Every structure is written in structure tokens, then in C-alpha cells.
């Protein structure tokens, strides 16, 4: 298995991109990443796309061919693959692309994620989200994705492993960083009070506990680590990628306040990279709902059960404040959550940090960074570890 | 890159499976393949799923987790990945699974394809099919997938590279073999006259030129070639896998009577396997519409442009009749076309042939077999070459 490097990254602004089509944002992110890698499109020999719902949103499946076509790469008939895993679509696409280079089947691969959501009506958006839960035993019974996460939050509060304030502080952390990121959808700090008083969505979660509806795309270029220097002086090593699954329905789990898939995937990833959680300086975690941030920090081994809320509430996760900076991009909550793009955008952020190009939100002396992407209620989780070289 | 072997195969019957759910057919095929490989589910460490439209058909995305869950594998939190590439979904899933084992990231992988279509209404089915064409420039303008293939047929007839009778004979060949396959949806030979006189769908194509709406699932188990003997005496080597893309819209191609993605992918695959088309004894090709069979034989290098129709009409492609037997399973036309399952079902058939277990439709002394899977109008094509060992 060959070692793999990230040699270029690119992303659109996240937010309401009403002037742009799904096609155009996918191409914009891809072209930025290719230019950042000092390549032309002709040197790419494999394409991976993470996308959740273009079938439902714009009646377009076969996004693989669409992006190959509109980026001009279809003229070379390159291999193009679309993967879908709900909210983890981008994370899974990244993993498949890493495997493609590691195996030797491809050499220079572009992996992108894209979603165009703000021009959809609420029914379409909610149906698409709920399809990532269990359609027979959850969504079909009237459960929505946010209500499932609300039950997790309710259970944590009942068990005493997190307070309402601690859960809300995950959103405060993401907004703190979003204010520092020019590409973020919401560039505004938000006090804890605002999160606590925001309109209820599914009790106890309010509007500010939920990541927004967004448009956006992100992309990275991969090649064998040995060849990275040929293209750029500023590259990052992919030290590990691992993925885990879990029951589709939350009700089938022995404990709903932890994601077994995160625990399993992160264990495999740490082992593959030969490190422990203490070696990580910067992490992008999947805060589609604030309560997911609490679980992430615990399930990834950064702290014990019942401690993550205290860590967030104390402000230690803000850049410069502690040993581990979390969601320096603004996370899903403040950077924005164009679903299929999210997992790739996390990789863009971690690579940017490890290259020392994160500007106002730069974490000092980071050697290792981690990204965690989640589909449904933890039914699919990817964990990637990147290393500065 | 490690060599990869197929050590187990399984499939449901294809057809109207009204007594079964999407979940149950996926599990049935998977369990058959695992049992055929003399394994238990616990030994599988990676899962790949090809599925086109469960999101639209049963409001269920995240099929990766669904299958991991219902097969009991989610308790181990194994990695599970769903890919989608229209009609090539199963073929692409197979390719990703091969890569997973070849790279060393996974060791024993189950790859399955499944689709449940017969309980859908016509609008849902047609929308799902048309989403694999270009939604903005084709489907959005009223073009359907069958009408795009009808244009290809019309053009061939105009150019004189195939006659109406030759095109129809592709369906005759598939039905000849379907009659010999107990798992096929249509087990009845069909004379040329019946195809020619079948009700028009999109002129010149009639009902018997079109693959049916089907339910079904298929699965295979992969492991490193070196370890295959530990599990079974009856295994097959994966000699090559390659994939190609093309413009999403047919109108953007210089020549609509050939699929550049098939040409490119097959060239790469022959090179990878170190063989020529003449070495192949049995091929499964993507005859979703009869005219696609004509293109396939030509684009895969089995004969020159204008000759494939004559080959089919002469009956040389029937088992025992010539050097190359085509669609011995009955193909998409007679075996059935549960979309996401089709590409995996082709692999099941070729592996069964090379293991000498194809019963009444057995091809004698076959060393190499090929499978070609197509998405949309050739916007994604996979070509796999298997070898008897």
C-alpha cells in the first residue's frame, strides 16, 4: 500500500449561492484544488464525488459523469465514482480516493463533495435528511433527524453526562471560529444565551443547535506521497483513513449517547497512524447538531464520557486556548452544511491548518489533524488523520 | 497491489419478488455468497453496495448502513460503502471492492447490488431512469432514456452499420440463454419476429428491445488471491478492472453509435490483464436496450463497426455456437434488470462460468470472461476481466 499525500485543496464559499448552479460550484471547487496542486485537469486520472441528494433535489443522478463532463475530464474518459452515505458522503468519497491512490489503480485523483440545498423547499430538504435515518422504523413513523438527535441530548441530560448549557456551547465554539473564516456561511460570534434562547426545533435543541441549510462544494487533490514534492512544496500526508458502520435505527443501539462507529473507526485510524488522541492538535468534527459535538469528542477518545461538555463550555476548544482546537473552520454549524461537501471541506480545513495557511484561525505547531464525518445518527462514520510533513 | 480472487457468489431469482422487501433480497444474496465462500459474516471486514434509487423508491438512502445492519455486520462496525452510477452502480461497486482488497485496506469484502422496482409506479421508475441522463439538457427537455437509445438505433440504421433485424437479434440471443437459467425473470425463447412486432416504445425500439423492470439482488465475496485456497477450491482471479466516463449528454459526443467510455475502459482492462479480446470466451454485456448490445460487441473490440449485428443475427453468440458466448445468464433483457444489482449479477455469471458451474448454459474450456456495465447512455462504463485458475 502506497503512502498518499494531499497536494491541493479548494472550496467555494458556503452559504446561499443562488447565482450558481450545482454544476458550477462543483467545478469551481475542483478547479481551485487542481490549480492549488499546480496541475492541469489532464493530469487527473481518477475522480471521486460525495453527494447526498442531487437525485431528489435536481433530478440528477450519475453525478460522477456530470462532474467529469463539466470539468472537461470526460474527454479523457477518466474513471469517475460517486458515493453516498448521508452526511458522511464526502468523508466516504475521500476514503475511496485515498484507497484508489494507495492501491496503485490511480495516481492523481481529484475528490470533491457538493450539495445545492438553499433553493429547495422545506419538504424536499427534510425528506432528504430523514432518508438517512431508517425509513421503515424511524422516518416512516414520523421521526425526523433532528428529533433523533434531540432524544440523544435529552438522554445525556437525564444521565447527567452533559447539561443544556454544555450542549449549547458546541455551537458557540463553532461560531467563534466561523467569524474568523472568510469562506463561512455565518461570520458572527454567538453568545451562549442566544443559543439557549433560540426558537425550539426539537426540544431541547433550538435553531442555534442545528447546522444550517447551505450550498457549497469542496475538493482536494491526492497523489502518491513519493511524488508530492514534484508538484508542490506544501503538501500533507494522509496518515490514516478508517470507516465504521452501525445499526441504521438509533433504537437498536445499547447506548444512544455514544456512536460505536466513531469509536471503532477512530481506534482503527489511530492504530494505522501509530498515534494516540493526545497527538492531535486540530480536529474537525461533525456538529450537524450541537449534541453530536459532545459525542464526537468523547467517542474519538479526546476525553471521557461526561467531560466533553465541560471542555466546550470552558472555551478550551477555541484556537490558541488549549491543546486541541476544534472546528476551526466554523464546523458544520457556522461554516455551513452543504451535506455532500461537508466531509471534504473538513479535509480542506485540516490540510490548510497543517500547511500553516489558516490565517487568523491558525493553530500553532500542529503536526497531526483529524476529521470525523457522520451519516444519519452515526450509522456511517469516517475518521481521517492527516500529518504535516 | 495485491491480486484479488472471487471466492463466493450468490443471487436471488430476478423478477417480480412481491413477497420480499428491499432489505430481505439484499440479505438473501449476501448470505448465499458468504455461505458459498465457506465463511461466516464475522470474517467480512468491508461491505460495498451498488444501488441506484432506493432514495426515490423507498425513501431510503444510506443503504450502506442498512445492509450492514440487517446482515448483522454493523455489530462489528465494519466499513460499508454505497456507490451509485446509474445502471453501472453494481459494476462500480465491484470495482471499488476490488480496490479495497488490492490496496490492503480490507481483506475479505462482500460486494452486493440490489434494486426493488416492480412495486413502483411508472412515473417513479421512469423518473429514476431518466435521472441517469442529463437532467438539464436531456431529461428536462422531455427526452427519456429509451428515446436516447432509439436515436442511437436510428442513426446506426441510417449509417448502415446495423439493420433493424440485427438490432432485434440481440434480444433473441438473451432470451435463448434466459430459457436455460433458472434464476432468470423470462425463461422463454423469443423468435426474431416477436421482437420486431412487439409494441413500439420509442421507434425503432419495441417492447422486446427493452430490458424489463425487475426486483433482485446479487453478491460476491472477494479476498486476496493468495488466501483464496484457504477458503475454497473453486475460486476465480480478478485479472482486471477499469472504468471510463463520458459526457453526460449524448448530444455532446462526436459519434453517438459508439461509447468512448467502453472503448477506453476495455483498452485499460485488456492491458491490465495482459490479453486481447480474442482471449475472452464468455462475456456479459449491458443490453438494457438491444441496440446497446451491438455497440458493446464493437466497442469492446470483439468485432469491427458494422459487424456486431451480423454476429448476433447469425447465432454465433449462443453458448456452444462460436468462440464467444454472450449473455449466457440471459442478460439484462431476459435474466432481468434490477438496476443496482445488474453489474454484480454479471460478475456472478462470469465467475459461475469460469468455475464450471453454469449447468445447461456452460461454456466449454473458458479461461477468461468479461463483464461490461453501463450507466446512462455510456456516461459511466466498467469493464471487469475474470480468469479461471
UniProtKB/TrEMBL annotation, chains A, B:
Domain Thiolase C-terminal: start-end pairs: 242-387
Pfam families in alphabetical order: Thiolase_C_1, Thiolase_N
EC number(s) given by UniProt: 2.3.1.16
Residue ranges the record marks as coiled coil: none
Domain annotation Thiolase N-terminal: ranges: 4-224
GO biological process: isoprenoid biosynthetic process
Protein name in the entry: FadA1 protein
